[in-house]
Design brief:
8 helices, two-stranded antiparallel sheet, 4-stranded antiparallel sheet, alpha+beta, 224 residues
Length: 224
Protein backbone atom coordinates (compact mmCIF):
# COMPACT_ATOMS: atom_id res chain seq x y z
CA UNK A 1 0.00 0.00 0.00
CA UNK A 2 1.15 3.53 -0.78
CA UNK A 3 2.65 5.44 2.19
CA UNK A 4 0.02 8.19 1.96
CA UNK A 5 -2.84 5.72 1.69
CA UNK A 6 -1.52 3.77 4.68
CA UNK A 7 -1.30 7.02 6.65
CA UNK A 8 -4.86 8.01 5.72
CA UNK A 9 -6.20 4.56 6.59
CA UNK A 10 -4.56 4.51 10.04
CA UNK A 11 -5.62 8.07 10.78
CA UNK A 12 -9.25 7.29 9.94
CA UNK A 13 -9.16 4.21 12.15
CA UNK A 14 -7.74 6.14 15.11
CA UNK A 15 -10.07 9.14 14.76
CA UNK A 16 -13.06 6.81 14.47
CA UNK A 17 -11.94 5.15 17.71
CA UNK A 18 -11.92 8.47 19.58
CA UNK A 19 -8.39 9.79 19.10
CA UNK A 20 -8.28 13.60 18.85
CA UNK A 21 -4.82 14.21 17.37
CA UNK A 22 -2.83 11.91 15.10
CA UNK A 23 0.61 12.24 13.57
CA UNK A 24 3.49 10.14 12.29
CA UNK A 25 7.15 10.81 13.08
CA UNK A 26 10.30 9.62 11.33
CA UNK A 27 12.29 8.22 14.28
CA UNK A 28 15.29 6.88 12.37
CA UNK A 29 17.54 9.60 13.84
CA UNK A 30 16.28 9.47 17.45
CA UNK A 31 15.59 5.80 18.21
CA UNK A 32 18.99 5.41 19.89
CA UNK A 33 17.57 7.61 22.67
CA UNK A 34 14.79 5.14 23.47
CA UNK A 35 14.93 3.03 26.62
CA UNK A 36 14.01 -0.15 24.75
CA UNK A 37 16.00 -3.01 23.25
CA UNK A 38 18.42 -1.64 20.64
CA UNK A 39 17.85 -4.75 18.56
CA UNK A 40 14.11 -4.03 18.44
CA UNK A 41 14.50 -0.26 18.01
CA UNK A 42 16.68 -0.62 14.92
CA UNK A 43 13.85 -2.43 13.13
CA UNK A 44 11.38 0.41 13.69
CA UNK A 45 11.58 3.71 11.81
CA UNK A 46 8.13 5.24 12.30
CA UNK A 47 6.23 6.34 15.41
CA UNK A 48 2.48 6.86 15.30
CA UNK A 49 1.63 9.48 17.91
CA UNK A 50 -1.89 9.44 19.36
CA UNK A 51 -3.45 12.15 21.52
CA UNK A 52 -6.70 12.38 23.50
CA UNK A 53 -8.06 15.66 24.77
CA UNK A 54 -8.48 16.19 28.50
CA UNK A 55 -11.75 17.47 29.94
CA UNK A 56 -11.78 21.25 30.24
CA UNK A 57 -14.37 20.99 33.01
CA UNK A 58 -12.17 18.65 35.07
CA UNK A 59 -9.12 20.85 34.55
CA UNK A 60 -11.02 24.00 35.48
CA UNK A 61 -11.42 22.69 39.03
CA UNK A 62 -7.66 22.81 39.52
CA UNK A 63 -6.56 25.94 41.35
CA UNK A 64 -3.35 25.72 43.39
CA UNK A 65 -3.41 21.95 43.88
CA UNK A 66 -4.45 18.99 41.71
CA UNK A 67 -7.82 17.39 42.45
CA UNK A 68 -8.80 13.77 42.97
CA UNK A 69 -11.20 14.12 40.05
CA UNK A 70 -8.32 15.20 37.80
CA UNK A 71 -6.21 12.27 39.02
CA UNK A 72 -9.00 9.83 38.13
CA UNK A 73 -9.57 11.48 34.74
CA UNK A 74 -5.81 11.41 34.05
CA UNK A 75 -5.71 7.65 34.67
CA UNK A 76 -8.81 6.94 32.56
CA UNK A 77 -7.51 8.93 29.58
CA UNK A 78 -4.16 7.14 29.79
CA UNK A 79 -5.92 3.76 29.90
CA UNK A 80 -8.04 4.69 26.89
CA UNK A 81 -4.92 5.69 24.94
CA UNK A 82 -3.22 2.43 25.83
CA UNK A 83 -6.30 0.49 24.70
CA UNK A 84 -6.38 2.21 21.30
CA UNK A 85 -2.61 1.75 20.94
CA UNK A 86 -3.08 -1.97 21.61
CA UNK A 87 -5.82 -2.23 18.98
CA UNK A 88 -3.59 -0.41 16.50
CA UNK A 89 -0.69 -2.77 17.25
CA UNK A 90 -2.88 -5.81 16.72
CA UNK A 91 -4.08 -4.45 13.39
CA UNK A 92 -0.52 -3.75 12.20
CA UNK A 93 0.71 -7.18 13.27
CA UNK A 94 -2.13 -8.89 11.41
CA UNK A 95 -0.91 -7.05 8.31
CA UNK A 96 2.56 -8.53 8.83
CA UNK A 97 4.33 -5.51 10.34
CA UNK A 98 6.14 -4.99 13.63
CA UNK A 99 4.38 -2.78 16.18
CA UNK A 100 5.38 -1.76 19.70
CA UNK A 101 3.05 0.28 21.90
CA UNK A 102 4.68 2.66 24.39
CA UNK A 103 2.28 3.35 27.30
CA UNK A 104 0.79 6.79 27.82
CA UNK A 105 2.40 7.01 31.22
CA UNK A 106 5.12 4.66 32.42
CA UNK A 107 7.93 6.58 34.07
CA UNK A 108 11.28 4.86 34.59
CA UNK A 109 12.86 7.72 36.55
CA UNK A 110 10.46 10.20 38.22
CA UNK A 111 13.13 12.68 39.33
CA UNK A 112 14.39 13.06 35.76
CA UNK A 113 10.93 12.48 34.30
CA UNK A 114 12.21 9.79 31.94
CA UNK A 115 10.09 7.09 30.30
CA UNK A 116 10.81 4.54 27.60
CA UNK A 117 10.78 7.46 25.21
CA UNK A 118 9.59 11.06 25.17
CA UNK A 119 6.04 11.21 23.80
CA UNK A 120 6.50 14.98 23.71
CA UNK A 121 9.46 14.65 21.36
CA UNK A 122 7.63 12.13 19.19
CA UNK A 123 4.63 14.47 19.10
CA UNK A 124 6.86 17.36 18.08
CA UNK A 125 8.48 15.32 15.28
CA UNK A 126 4.98 14.22 14.21
CA UNK A 127 3.90 17.84 13.76
CA UNK A 128 1.39 17.84 16.63
CA UNK A 129 2.84 20.89 18.36
CA UNK A 130 5.92 22.45 19.90
CA UNK A 131 7.71 22.03 23.23
CA UNK A 132 6.39 24.86 25.38
CA UNK A 133 7.87 26.77 28.29
CA UNK A 134 6.07 24.28 30.55
CA UNK A 135 8.19 21.48 29.02
CA UNK A 136 5.02 19.91 27.60
CA UNK A 137 3.88 19.50 24.03
CA UNK A 138 1.66 22.44 23.08
CA UNK A 139 -0.87 21.99 20.29
CA UNK A 140 -2.19 25.07 18.50
CA UNK A 141 -5.83 24.12 19.14
CA UNK A 142 -5.63 22.15 22.39
CA UNK A 143 -2.74 23.79 24.19
CA UNK A 144 -1.27 21.19 26.57
CA UNK A 145 -4.68 19.78 27.45
CA UNK A 146 -4.18 16.31 26.02
CA UNK A 147 -2.36 13.07 26.75
CA UNK A 148 -0.17 11.07 24.38
CA UNK A 149 0.80 7.50 23.55
CA UNK A 150 3.02 6.19 20.77
CA UNK A 151 3.15 3.10 18.58
CA UNK A 152 6.48 2.25 16.95
CA UNK A 153 6.34 0.33 13.68
CA UNK A 154 8.12 -0.60 10.48
CA UNK A 155 5.04 -0.02 8.32
CA UNK A 156 6.02 2.35 5.48
CA UNK A 157 4.21 5.60 6.29
CA UNK A 158 4.28 9.22 5.21
CA UNK A 159 5.93 11.20 8.01
CA UNK A 160 4.67 14.57 9.23
CA UNK A 161 6.95 17.56 9.75
CA UNK A 162 7.58 19.55 12.94
CA UNK A 163 5.84 22.89 13.29
CA UNK A 164 7.76 26.16 13.54
CA UNK A 165 5.23 27.67 15.96
CA UNK A 166 6.04 28.47 19.58
CA UNK A 167 4.48 29.97 22.72
CA UNK A 168 5.05 33.52 21.51
CA UNK A 169 4.32 36.06 24.23
CA UNK A 170 2.21 33.71 26.38
CA UNK A 171 3.67 33.17 29.85
CA UNK A 172 0.61 31.99 31.77
CA UNK A 173 2.34 28.79 32.86
CA UNK A 174 5.38 30.73 34.10
CA UNK A 175 3.20 32.91 36.33
CA UNK A 176 1.07 30.13 37.81
CA UNK A 177 3.62 27.34 38.43
CA UNK A 178 3.64 26.75 42.23
CA UNK A 179 7.14 25.29 42.04
CA UNK A 180 8.57 28.19 40.01
CA UNK A 181 10.01 25.49 37.77
CA UNK A 182 9.12 27.16 34.45
CA UNK A 183 11.45 29.69 32.85
CA UNK A 184 11.63 31.75 29.70
CA UNK A 185 12.70 28.83 27.50
CA UNK A 186 11.88 25.11 27.53
CA UNK A 187 15.54 24.41 28.33
CA UNK A 188 15.15 26.43 31.55
CA UNK A 189 12.55 24.02 32.95
CA UNK A 190 13.64 22.76 36.39
CA UNK A 191 12.70 19.08 36.64
CA UNK A 192 13.84 18.84 40.27
CA UNK A 193 11.63 21.71 41.47
CA UNK A 194 8.67 20.26 39.58
CA UNK A 195 9.25 16.79 41.05
CA UNK A 196 9.55 18.09 44.59
CA UNK A 197 6.26 19.97 44.25
CA UNK A 198 4.27 17.05 42.83
CA UNK A 199 5.82 14.82 45.48
CA UNK A 200 4.50 17.22 48.13
CA UNK A 201 1.01 16.97 46.61
CA UNK A 202 1.15 13.21 47.07
CA UNK A 203 2.41 13.51 50.65
CA UNK A 204 -0.47 15.88 51.42
CA UNK A 205 -2.80 13.19 50.03
CA UNK A 206 -4.10 15.53 47.35
CA UNK A 207 -3.56 12.70 44.85
CA UNK A 208 -2.19 9.14 44.97
CA UNK A 209 0.37 9.58 42.17
CA UNK A 210 2.80 12.22 40.97
CA UNK A 211 0.48 14.51 38.99
CA UNK A 212 -0.15 18.25 39.01
CA UNK A 213 -2.09 19.74 36.07
CA UNK A 214 -1.84 23.38 37.17
CA UNK A 215 0.10 24.57 34.12
CA UNK A 216 -1.98 22.28 31.88
CA UNK A 217 -5.15 24.06 33.01
CA UNK A 218 -3.93 27.47 31.80
CA UNK A 219 -2.41 26.20 28.52
CA UNK A 220 -5.58 26.05 26.41
CA UNK A 221 -4.51 26.79 22.83
CA UNK A 222 -6.27 29.14 20.46
CA UNK A 223 -9.55 27.22 20.27
CA UNK A 224 -11.24 26.66 23.64
Amino acid sequence: MDKKLSYASLKKFCLDEGIDVFGVADISQVRDEFKISAEVAQKLDRAICLGVRLSGAVLSEIDIVPTKLYFHHYKIVNSFLDFIALRLCNMLQKQGYLALAIPATQIIDWEKNIGHLSHRKIGYLAGLGWIGRNNLLVNEKLGSQFRLASVLTNLPLKADRPTKSDCGSCRLCVKICPAQAIGENPSDFNHQKCFEKIKSFQHQRQVEQFVCGICVNVCRGKVK
